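Supplementary Note 3. Input sequence used for the single-chain structure prediction.
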Amino acid sequence: MGGPPYDCLANPLGAVRFTFEKSVSSGSDPASFDGKDWGALDLFRHILSDPAALAQVPILNPSTIRWLRPNILVRFQGMIQDMLGNEFYVGACKDGSVWRTNKYTDFCQFPMGSSPDMRIWERRLLYCVPVPGRNSWTESFSEVAMKRFMDWASQQREKRRRMEDEDPNHMDLQVTDDDYKSSPTAKKMREDGDPSSSSHSQNSMIVDAPSGLHTLADADRNFLPCLVKVYDTPESDLKLNDVLEFVGILTFDSDLPVDEYDNDESSGGLGEEELVRLPPSKVPRLHCLFSRKLELHDFLTGSPKELKPHLIKEIREALLMHLTTILGNDSVAAHFMLLHLLSRIHARADGIAVGKLSLNLTHLSKEGMSIFGTRLSHFVKNLLPFTHCIPLTLEYLNSASLAPKKDYELNRLIPGTLQLAEGSHVIFDETQLQAGTLNSVGVENARLLKNLMEYQKVEYDFKYYKMEMTTNVLLLIFSEGKSNIMPADLVIPFQSSRADSFGVPGAEALEAWRWYLTTVRSLPHSIESEMQKVVESDLVAARQADRSLGSQDFSRWLTMARLMSLSFGESSLSLEHWQMVMELDRLRRDRLK
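The predicted structure, written as discrete structure tokens, is reproduced below.
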């Protein structure tokens, strides 16, 4: 599987067809290929296992799409917002006496006629969107990276021309453009005067001017959905709201009529109604070769940080100091905020989401919110990859679409505000909420918010029934008094002593804090047997001293103890950290009195 990687990057369909024909010529039956790889994926995985080669594959987004041409290899990072079912297509057919494949394409590339020698295969359709609330600092494919990519593509074109001049019989990977140029599609493109038929642009992954996918790029410069067609992947591997990076072949035709797409005998599954709303001229298609689920650390900038124990403590101290300054010298609130930022659900038992730690900062007036709330919201946005800020006004509650709803006429899942990616941070601002009456929509929205806060679940409305979907998000509420709509795990009266100005943290500090939060959050944790006895004894004593304490309080203390240990980079609970948690919660309860 040797050969230069640019053949597979610039002409992936050539690589697919070459490996298919090679496999068929060796005696393999095309009927056995549905759901199986005949060597194409192995070839792409081999080439893209080199990080330098993978880095050359452009990311498909609103900034880059105007430079890209169809039928090249691209990456797309997005969230699965809707699963549109399966689609049948002609995967293989005979062109005369030669078997050809249409896998990873939208249409049959070869005339089928009435030949019975056709193989019908199946693929899944996913409607994917940019991750909701994704912050701009996570965008790694910048204009500088795009320029490097364009320079690289230009160098490869020049290199290819030199090689062809030196050896006219040269065949890189044997996946040259010969197969492609001889296909009916390529002939039609040449007859129609398509400039990509020239040797200059055929090996290019970019167009020579920003006119390639301009129709789509002009539709919405800040939002680019993508219809991902998935092959040979078990259904259990992909779930609604998963965030993935897809590597596949980009197809797009801004001039293709909807009825032509709908009537093509190689496509099926999607009806005319859906296609009118997801036309190829507006939503690019990506034929997925392979994908990987993205974690929060995949969105961080810079190289992975090796955080040693002494370094973790230094970063923790600096982050805590900055949080304290932001919160007007309220160190208690800053400590709780740190634990909150580290929280995540790590288990579910009897309907309880274990590990969540939602926060309700109270005693925040509108003026206080404009200072401290704004500061904290901005800081969290610079720390975490996905963030949202939702103003809970009476008007918003009475009109917002929080839960996703199924539209059977469109056969689409209409997204709601609470359809979020795992690890998202959501701030609810109740300081603008005034007395008034909730209508039926407002009552339902209040119920949805309470369910999200207590159980980390969101009800999806499928009209004839409702389905609870688990989620894993961080929830922070700003309010004047204790929130009655969203009962948080921790209620902390905010007490600022001053609103001093503070310096903006540098890029190096922000990068260190981001890696710190992501790294220590995922550490394993346990409580040794000796420490278990101490904890049990303290819980019994606390219950005897205050009969109002219950299982929820004890569960919260254990969650806080786990997070306190992790904040120091330690995987087991120590007596010192347990005592810190008990003292911290005592100070909080004193404020509530």
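The domain at 309-509 is CATH 3.40.50 (Rossmann fold). The mean pLDDT is 82.
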